[in-house]
Input
Amino acid sequence: VRLVESGGGLVQAGGSLTLSCKASGMILSEFWRHDKAWYRQSPGKQREMVALLTNSGSTEYADSVLGRFTISRDNAKRTVSLQMNNLKPEDTAVYYCNIGGPSQFWGQGTQITVSS
Output
């Protein structure tokens, strides 16, 4: 199984970006049953979870992104997305896709830089 993120880059404060994570080598039933999440890590800080989507469709968000970020999935495409609106400089980090919890599958990370 391989997770490949895309959609990172540089954006001005107030702007929007959408991250995508494609799971290759994962059958549909496995993709469906796993929880999916996006984490981020800034220099000098611990990796934190910013959004979680359970297999039942429930979502959880970090307080810092609540109302601005939206996690979603496309089972047929084995893709997890993170829509990020009203980005702030403090959102600058490397963002990681995770499927199945911290002990399972991780993407390689994609850099998001928000300029003020």
Remarks:
- The longest strand covers residues 17-24.
- Residues 43 and 93 are 8 Å apart (CA to CA).
- The chain has a mean pLDDT of 96.
